[in-house]
Amino acid sequence: GLTLVFVTHDLKLARRLCTRALVLREGRCVEAGPLTELARSARHPYTRELFDSLSLPALRGTAVGEPLLTAQALSAGWPRRGWQGWFRAPTPSLHALDLQLSAGSAIGVVGASGAGKSTAVRALGGLLPALAGSLKLHHHAGPRPQIVFQDPYRSLSPRQTVGATLDEVLAVHGTPTSARPARIAELLAAVELAPALATRLPRTLSGGQRQRVAIARALAVRSRVLIGDEALSALDARVQVTVLRLLASLRDQRGLGLIHISHDLASVRALCTEVLVLDTGRVVERGPPDAVLVRPQHPATQALVAAERALGGWLGAESLENPVNFS
To answer: Stretch 144-163: mean pLDDT, rounded?
Structure first.
């Protein structure tokens, strides 16, 4: 007999769980009413924009460039602590991963919690040593792969301004002091931020702006391999679409290779040319997103798709009153 007040960015889940919604913008309620009515005929432009953002555009690239990163039978794991506090040999939580990332392409990695996605992020990013197999970063890929983490407020220093954050990266990688201001302005422009934001602290920025700063910091290293570790999950639906478009644009303009690790199957289908499904640290299914996510073969993939349908996601169009169209 409880009443639930559910505050969320996830419109799909809200439509399944809630009967009535309040739409907030800049601290004010701009529209309220039954969720089904808001989804069908929202009156306020902001509400309409929120629901329209559920229909992601097709942003898939084409792997026309050279290979940037190759993993062959890559296994990795975390050290274990023994009963006396000593570290013991790591137990693999990622087994025999095969992957080839080319310039202009994006690979999606999906799986349930505990499937090995976080281990894959750190292994591919060079933060975990390989226990078996090999990881090769090709010479034209630049420095080591860069990771854009899930929560930009935690991945950015709260005491450093945006400009200081980027300046630190440039200094470490040998950019002359005199060239750094222009380079900082160039990086901010690349992620569609105003140069004036260089003097701001992260707490004064929106979530989308902070994530753009995190992307700019990754680009400052001039690596052509970008790994997104749930990089969209902390953002609202409108900002997710904006950042997704930005990633696709950077990929196409700069010849980047993207690895998009996400629970959001819609963003994976929109952005990626290939999908890998992890289960207990192993790739159990892989292929084009329209095949893997629409006609799954492995039980683990089928469970992910079934969960998306249960929440009213785009994969379960038959269960939506207002289905999302990707055609």
So the answer is: 91
Q: Which of 40, 2, 46 is nearest to 22 (CA)?
A: 46
Contact indicator for 191, 213 with CB cutoff of 8 Å:
yes
Report helix, strand or coil for 139. Answer: helix
Q: What residues are paired with 148 via a beta bridge?
A: 228
Residue-level pLDDT at 324: 35
CA–CA distance, 320 with 200 (Å, rounded to integer): 42
Q: Identify the pLDDT of residue 317.
A: 41
Exposed / middle / buried, residue 159 (Cβ in 10 Å: 0-12, 13-18, 19+):
exposed
Claim: this prediction has a pTM higher than 0.70 = yes
Give the Cα separation of 205 and 278 in Å (integer).
34
Residues recorded for the chain: 327
Q: At 70, phi and psi to the nearest 5?
A: -130, 125
- 211 CB-near residues (< 8 Å, 6+ apart): 148, 152, 231, 232, 234, 235, 239, 243
Q: Which residues pair with 304 in a beta bridge?
A: none
> Could you give the 3-state DSSP secondary structure of residue 134?
strand
Q: What is the mean pLDDT of the chain?
A: 86
Per the rule left: phi > 0, alpha: psi between -120 and 50, beta: everything else, 262 is beta
> Average pLDDT, stretch 224-235?
88
Predicted pLDDT at 77: 87
